[in-house]
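ok here's the first one, seq then struct tokens
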Amino acid sequence: MSKVDKFYEAKNLFQCPKCKKKIRFHGGALVCKKEHTFDIAAKGYVNLLQQTKSFKGYDAGFFKSRRAFFAAGYYDHIVGEVVDTACRFLGNMEAPVVLDAGCGEGGYSAAIEAAFAGNGVAGQVLAFDIASDAIKVAAGDDNVKWMVADITNIPVKDGVVDCILDVFTPANYKEFNRVLADNGYLIKVVPGSAHLQELRRAVSDQLQNKEYSNEDVTDYFEDHYELVSRVKCTATRELSRENLVNLVRMTPLLFDVDKSRLDLSGVTEITIEGEVLVGRKK
């Protein structure tokens, strides 16, 4: 299946972000009843915003560094937990639909799609980010349906998604509940208190919040979903100079830090900690 044709099998899941009408696959593009047309790029993604948006720090270099850091294995324990959790909760479904909201460079989406393929599951993985640079880095030789889209206006029909991934990124619970099936799940990953603690200590003099707590985020999650699972994943690994450079380039923690004042010579290891929350629609 080509990078363009893969969207054909998911055409019944989409709705037009402009008029909310259903979308059909036509001539290598997604087209709605009102003829709003969204071309599918040769690389295997579609821009459903029909525009390019840029955000401070979130440029192509950011996402390339993030992909390199992920490829070095620093997030493998969290990726593994997310994949295992999704497969466990979706195990009884014949053809589950997974939506990765704010997918960034796409590591989690690609891992879910690979797990489906490896286990013979006829599932669909849709992934989107509002940053077109993220999707350009993410898209490749896979069956994930990559999209440039807005979390406040998800271009997916009501109630067709079995599982949403929301990994280290903001949520929009109103839109999530709209697209999520009645028996669907939300897998949300939030940083733990030890996340990047070595880096945080090294730049503490430039941080407004010296310590991090995810309590407000998790409480808000439980206000909207029935919490059915909560797992903390922590790993500390040695940090090479090359991977330190990628980490500095890819972490929003340092967006407002004066990098000319940084002394990271003492940062020789890094802790990656996330809490994997699973919620069911109330």
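and now the second one, same deal
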Amino acid sequence: MTAEQETLYTNARRQFDTAADLLDLDPRMRAILRVPQRELIVNFPVQKDDKRVEVYTGYRVQHNITRGPAKGGIRYHPNVTLDDVRALSMLMTWKCATVNIPYGGAKGAVIVDPRTLSIDELERLTRRYTTEISVLIGPDRDIPAPDVGTDSQIMAWVMDTISMHTGHTVPAVVTGKPLEIGGSHGRDQATARGLLYVLREAAEALSFSLPGARVAIQGYGKVGATIARLLDEMGATVIAVSDSSGGIYNARGLSLDAVSEHKQRTGHLAGFPEADAISHAELLELPCEVLVPASLSTQITTENAPRIRARVVGEAANGPTAAAADEILYGNGVFVIPDILAGAGGVTVSYFEWVQGLQEFFWTEREVNAQLERVMTGAFRTVLRVAQERRVNMRTAAYLLAVERVAQSTRIRGIYP
């Protein structure tokens, strides 16, 4: 098996092993942290609109809950696997620890293409799945959030289902809810805005200006489109973006208003008249200052890593860089902001939403963004300091910081009984 053929879970454990080796982690601690603590598999029936019954498979995996309640999204996708959920739950543990918020890591999923369901079927599936995993989730135990294929409406159904079982409203059982029922201002843009803050810090560390910088973004979904807009407003030049239909490129810069209008009208980026068509692979290799992989895992591999010409790679996607490609990028002077740092804005504002829900005291968007900036810039500077002191890349530094924090919490608490 080559590095590019490894599963996301194998890659996540490989990255943990690298940090564990450098930390000289006790073998007993390594054994604890290398595997998920809990895995729940559920098979549940859903009645379709035509009265047929279909059985779906879902998961909820808690990797670690030493530092606080588990935190992680729920994914609806036809190809999701248990190993994917294991990997994503592990990444959530390290992501929360990297930005030092008091959560452990979890992830949930249902094997389903939500686009094939009516709104009523989607609600019935969500409420039944929620009921099945209700033995694990709760505001002081495990707090889900939206992920691929889910949104704020689905979180509202999850919250309502748990509330109906409990007999009273439980707003803090999920985050990413609509504002009307206890959601937080700033949540929709949180991942992209967190990425903006760390890209700004990286530009300063590397002595180049983000205003005027050329930006290429693979994945023009919710996060990709938002970071494109935020960087454009800051004065950067977005030269390329892509979605499932392919990529578009204009060396002079794209008009994001025109791009968004074209995608809204046609449903895809392909055919945008004011740019050249390029492939996903070509986008990654464009000359630019900032590259943002915001779509799928394992997009930068040992095969294309030598041709990456960006100065900074900000990983908005989970695991977009194969483990073996990291050293190539590092050796070529490409500064990679790893996913567990670059993508931590979402879980950080989810933490703020959870706190607001528990206290029933809500913040303004300005307050949310100010606190997000404080957390993300502080985390970046700490990771950069570790990278410089240990002479390692930013991913290894983030893992060193995160794994040590979780290991230290485990040592202090001890092993029960």
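notes on #2: Residues 389 and 397 are 9 Å apart (CA to CA). The two ends are 40 Å apart (CA to CA).
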